[in-house]
UniProtKB/TrEMBL annotation:
<keyword id="KW-0547">Nucleotide-binding</keyword>
<dbReference type="InterPro" id="IPR014729">
    <property type="entry name" value="Rossmann-like_a/b/a_fold"/>
</dbReference>
<keyword id="KW-0648">Protein biosynthesis</keyword>
<dbReference type="InterPro" id="IPR036986">
    <property type="entry name" value="S4_RNA-bd_sf"/>
</dbReference>
<protein>
    <recommendedName>
        <fullName>Tyrosine--tRNA ligase</fullName>
        <ecNumber>6.1.1.1</ecNumber>
    </recommendedName>
</protein>
<dbReference type="InterPro" id="IPR001412">
    <property type="entry name" value="aa-tRNA-synth_I_CS"/>
</dbReference>
<keyword id="KW-0030">Aminoacyl-tRNA synthetase</keyword>
<dbReference type="InterPro" id="IPR002305">
    <property type="entry name" value="aa-tRNA-synth_Ic"/>
</dbReference>
<dbReference type="GO" id="GO:0005829">
    <property type="term" value="C:cytosol"/>
</dbReference>
<keyword id="KW-0963">Cytoplasm</keyword>
<dbReference type="GO" id="GO:0005524">
    <property type="term" value="F:ATP binding"/>
</dbReference>
<dbReference type="GO" id="GO:0042803">
    <property type="term" value="F:protein homodimerization activity"/>
</dbReference>
<dbReference type="Pfam" id="PF22421">
    <property type="entry name" value="SYY_C-terminal"/>
</dbReference>
<dbReference type="GO" id="GO:0006437">
    <property type="term" value="P:tyrosyl-tRNA aminoacylation"/>
</dbReference>
<comment type="subunit">
    <text>Homodimer.</text>
</comment>
<dbReference type="InterPro" id="IPR024107">
    <property type="entry name" value="Tyr-tRNA-ligase_bac_1"/>
</dbReference>
<feature type="binding site">
    <location>
        <position position="167"/>
    </location>
    <ligand>
        <name>L-tyrosine</name>
    </ligand>
</feature>
Amino acid sequence: MTVWEELKARGLIAQVTDEDEIKEMVNNGKATFYIGFDPTADSLHVGHFMALCLMKRLQMAGNRPIALLGGGTGMIGDPSGRTDMRQMMTKETIQHNIDCFKKQMSRFIDFSDGKALMVNNADWLLNLNYVDLLRDVGAHFSVNRMLTAECYKQRMERGLSFLEFNYMIMQSYDFYMLYQKYGCNMQFGGDDQWSNMLGGTELIRRKLGKDAYAMTITLLLNSEGKKMGKTQSGAVWLDPNKTSPFDFYQYWRNVDDADVIKCMRLLTFLPLEQIDEMATWEGSQLNKAKEILAYELTNLVHGEEEAKKAQEGARALFSGGADTAHMPTTELTDEDFAEEGTIDLITMLIKAGLVPTRSEGRRAIEQGGVSIDGEKITDIKHTVSKDTLTGDGVVLKRGKKKFNRVYAK
């Protein structure tokens, strides 16, 4: 099976500009391609994960990836998939986020000996002269055509700022610069980036008379059509300090039955034959498939040791075992307790990250979904003493799948 055939079989490919050309380059290791990452937070998240896996696959086949960090585009903000304008970030915040991205990307991509590049579009975007840009680049863009782009259409009713309207031009300019500086002949990205990517291929054709190509990858959606990688407490991050390896493992262990095989194909490096075999599994066998998915992805992001710990901890909890060694933990301090040395259960749930608000904590308790060391608690005024929480603490549980060991100093 060729690289291209595998990408198709895994369901990774959404749209392409010229399938025959892209297939030939990818299969023969001739592609120098880029994927852009705007530093909107201090960690990559599950939404970036599929792009990183694609880069890794293509690099293994001899192609050369360029990770483009958006130090310049991050100053503007991508309107794609947004119902409102992104919060403006300072240069210092953007630089901090970029530094965090660099460390995480190196886990996936081999940047040694020029096998891959990591570049920052601030190097060319921040020094542009506005009038020169209008004359050299703006003349090649039709406003009428830009307004038909999906990323703009969905914002027209609520309001699209001129700031964001420029984003397509900036992303297109990135492709143009990467083509000239590094011979980058392809751009890959999420399916919501299609219009922006076509802008880049068109700019290269108009300015240089050369062909460049674009391919979008399938967005990571669940069976209900919603983006995966979100929990009640927010995004699922690749940084272990923001989402622990245990919670990362648990996220994938708990995916819906309808999504497990699709995630296997899109995200893991397991052979397709093995995945096709798992696609025939039913009932309790699907739990085994989910374990495999969770282990493989945790191993990719956090390494084998953390993946084993997370798996052991999860198995102990699912089997009702008392092993809390690998469970996520929350340490309470003196300030968390009232004068009488107690803490109420709702506050404990919030501190442990098991609920986002007090009202949700109250509902969870009233509905019988909260327990302490296996004992169900339905009293919303229930309190726990500091003495009870010293030492190993207690296992606080919400629902069947969310656990946290809470202890006091």
